Amino acid sequence: MKRLLVVGGCLLLTACASAPSHPQDPLEPLNRAVYRFNDTADKAVLKPVAQAYQKVTPQPVRTGVGNFFDNLRDVYSAANHTLQGKAELALTDVLRVSFNSTFGLFGLIDIATPMGLKSNKATLGDTFAHYGWQNSSYLVLPLLGPSTVRDGSGILISNSLEPATGVFQTHTQATTARVLDAVNTRERLLGLETVVEGAALDNYSYVRDGFLQMRAHQLGLPQDKRQQEEDLNIDELVDDPQDASAPAANDASGAAVSPP
Amino acid sequence: MKKLFACFALLFGLSSVAHAADTPVDLVRDTSRQALEMLSKDNGKNSAKVREQLISMVTPKFDFQRMTALAVGKDWRAATPAQKQQLAKEFETLLVGTYSATMTRFKNAQIDIKPNVLLNNEGREAVVKSEVTLPGSAEKKPINVDYTLYKTPQGWKVFNVTVEGGSLVTIYRNQFGEQVRKSGIDGLIKSLQDKNSGAKAA
């Protein structure tokens, strides 16, 4: 089901291209619909389940569950660092998996991090970006939340190449695991939705802009050009005779920072 | 994404200028230390008082007018001085209200302020980098929080905070722009007022 929806989303890429409010969000109408769906599903199911999960499990158990899935992600990460030709990071990932899967009791304990083997998770989306697919449209994935077309495609492909198939024997087991992973992740994020609701005028736009800024930063990409230009002119923007708070901009250098 | 939100509280909790501080790094460091000290006195019963103290300690270190200009972007030029005043006031209320509510979560945070500062704009603008670790949380990697400050006659003031590359200020630009397009600057002021009064009622 999830995959079907993602594919549907990709197909719609070409369909809707009417004046987006954000240059990186040509799929806004679709994304808003999926966002609403996710929000409803979260309120009805995922959030209450995560809250119940928080009540019945002690923190060490939840940390263990988180570590377990993190360990599986290190396997993906090693593959992706290899694909990107980043040997040192790939080796770190391999060592992390080796230590955590053995001395760390099948990944339940993350002993690699205190050993100095830092976690640097790479995904297939990162690999795509590494090979030039840098700007990608925003895409809200059903149930998974904010993503981009690039990262969503990466998830789609990675999921079909499941390293977990080596761990989980049956399809049912793999699905159960994915649900547990989702609940555990959601538990970590409890409280977040109140912040968004408290802070945002438009929740959708708030989450999107935050996500896109952070993702660009993660990939080492420059911020949205339009934004950059306006940021550069902050002195000029506030340099108003009425505005006593920016007197520093009155000296000669004030003019130099505002290119024509 | 999570980190961005996880650190919202830091916007008001941890970045400000002590009077003695004359470099941007000192300022951020002193304020962070003061904020953590205040938070450590929170025993569950006096939360409201601690929150009030924190707000009054931290808010003077920010320049909300400049922050609002940065959030609004080019539409700021079209605003009258009175509108600018109102916008800044409402934006301040929104930010303070939102983030002060989550501050107690950062009671046990460890804050590592990086000593080397990035100077821009001929030394009048500075970026101070910090790493925040929350012990006991599932987050293993420290969270990168950067503060952008500028020099005023009253000392350095913070006007932008980014968490893992996401700005807590420019995250509003599209939302504000949308409101201004729909109903003008006054419409934006109105929607901020509605938001703030709604938040109080809730």
Task: Describe the fold and architecture.
The complex is a heterodimer of chains A (260) and B (202). Chain A has 260 residues and is mainly alpha-helical. Chain A has one domain (2-9, 22-238). Chain A is built from twelve helices and two strands; from the N terminus they run H-H-H-H-H-E-E-H-H-H-H-H-H-H. Chain A has a two-stranded antiparallel ribbon with strand order 1-2. In chain A, a hairpin with a 3-residue loop joins strand 1 and strand 2 (145-148). In chain A, helix 2 (28-56) packs across helix 7. The radius of gyration of chain A is 22 Å and the shape is globular. The relative contact order of chain A is 0.11. Mean pLDDT of chain A is 76; it is low at 10-18 and 241-260. By secondary structure, chain B is α+β, with helices and mostly antiparallel strands. In chain B, 49% of the residues lie in helices and 18% in strands. Chain B has helices at 2-6, 8-13, 24-40, 47-58, 64-72, 81-100, 173-201, and strands at 110-113, 118-120, 125-133, 143-152, 155-163, 166-167. In chain B, strands 1, 2, 3, 4, 5 and 6 form a six-stranded antiparallel beta sheet that branches. In chain B, strand 5 (155-163) and strand 6 (166-167) form a beta hairpin. In chain B, helix 6 crosses helix 7 (173-201). The longest helix of chain B is centred in the last third of the chain and has 29 residues, at 173-201. Chain B is globular. At the A-B interface, helix 3, helix 8, helix 9, helix 10 and helix 11 of A face helix 1, helix 5, helix 6, strand 4 and strand 5 of B. Chain A: Belongs to the MlaA family. Chain A: Residues 1-19 form the signal peptide. Chain A: Residues 243-260 have a biased composition (Low complexity).
